[in-house]
Design goal:
Layout lengths: L48 E4 L18 E4 L5 H18 L3 H19 L6 E4 L3 H12 L5 E4 L2 H15 L3 H14 L4 H13 L3 H19 L4 H4 L6 H18 L3 H14 L4 H13 L6
Parallel strand pairs: 1-2, 2-4, 3-4
Helix pairs in contact: 1-2, 1-4, 2-4, 4-5, 5-6, 6-7, 6-9, 7-9, 9-10, 9-11, 10-11
């Protein structure tokens, strides 16, 4: 009999993806530490127009009108208010590590989210986040192709969405968590950690087809990340990209089993083990699938 999804009390946060070795979501040990803030200067480009969002410690200035073009605004990272937002994020993480998710949301993550929403009106500008300045600007340029103004920030706003979603899941409020994760994935496209968490939220609600599609996106993102020269700096939680590849493959395998596609699931778990022969969770899942298929061995 397959072991149902269950979270473990032992290992939680700092980056909110902990699962017991038996199954999907709680299968991962929590990453060490939150992503580093985006404090590198972004390169200038000719068009669309790019301008800083702040002067000194001021609130971000409205994006300049670029006529028929688009303005990309680079958010500040070292003013007092932004440092306070980071402190709020850290406070929320500390409370979540103590299993105080209600307080973590109210005293940490909600305050961080309110801070950013006051400074950046989503009705007036698209917001994109990045773990490095290059990644953030790349996401901003891609968003600008659809027209409208874009603001590029570091990872803090998206991380607050991610952590709050984790805590909501801990509190049994999975649909709300899914909504926040969809937003985080929109603001930081192609982040394999956010996508894996979103796939998990979908799977927990029995949305296996949607979870499969999301985990496939996570795999594509992790594979693309692994090929980048700055993969180590951009990889979430400081993990090697291969760990996000195997995480996505395990999610794909789980969804395939739920959809009754056992042969495909077996091939997927084998792919995970090809990448990491020591992946104990993938081994257990493969054993489970082999048992369902009549005891065949890899």
């Amino acid at each position: 009999m397959r072991i149902p999804l269950v979270r473990v009390a032992g290992v939680v946060l700092p980056l909110a993806v902990s699962l017991a070795a038996c199954k999907k979501k709680t299968e991962e040990a929590a990453p060490e530490g939150a992503p580093a803030p985006n404090d590198a200067a972004a390169p200038d480009v000719g068009s669309p127009t790019i301008e800083p969002a702040t002067t000194g410690d001021a609130v971000p200035a409205p994006a300049a009108d670029a006529g028929s073009g688009t303005t990309i605004t680079i958010g500040g990272s070292d003013d007092d208010e932004t440092r306070q937002a980071r402190a709020g994020l850290d406070a929320g993480i500390a409370l979540a590590k103590q299993r105080q998710c209600g307080r973590a949301i109210a005293e940490g993550f909600d305050k961080v989210l309110a801070f950013f929403e006051r400074r950046h009106d989503p009705a007036r500008t698209k917001v994109r986040c990045g773990r490095t300045s290059v990644a953030g600007l790349g996401a901003g340029l891609e968003a600008a192709l659809g027209g409208g103004n874009v603001t590029v920030l570091g990872p803090e706003w998206c991380d607050a969405l991610f952590y709050k979603a984790y805590c909501l899941t801990e509190l049994g409020r999975v649909p709300e968590a899914e909504t926040l994760l969809v937003r985080a994935c929109e603001m930081m496209p192609g982040d394999p950690m956010y996508l894996a968490e979103l796939g998990d939220a979908q799977q927990r609600q029995g949305k296996s087809a949607a979870a499969l599609a999301t985990f496939e996106r996570a795999l594509a993102a992790a594979t693309a990340l692994a090929a980048e020269p700055d993969a180590a700096a951009r990889s979430p939680a400081g993990r090697p990209p291969v760990q996000w590849q195997t995480r996505a493959l395990r999610g794909i395998g789980y969804a395939l089993v739920e959809l009754g596609r056992l042969e495909d699931a077996r091939a997927t778990y084998r792919r995970a083990l090809d990448l990491d022969p020591n992946d104990a969770t993938a081994k257990k899942e493969l054993d489970y699938v082999n048992g369902r298929l009549g005891g065949a061995t890899p």
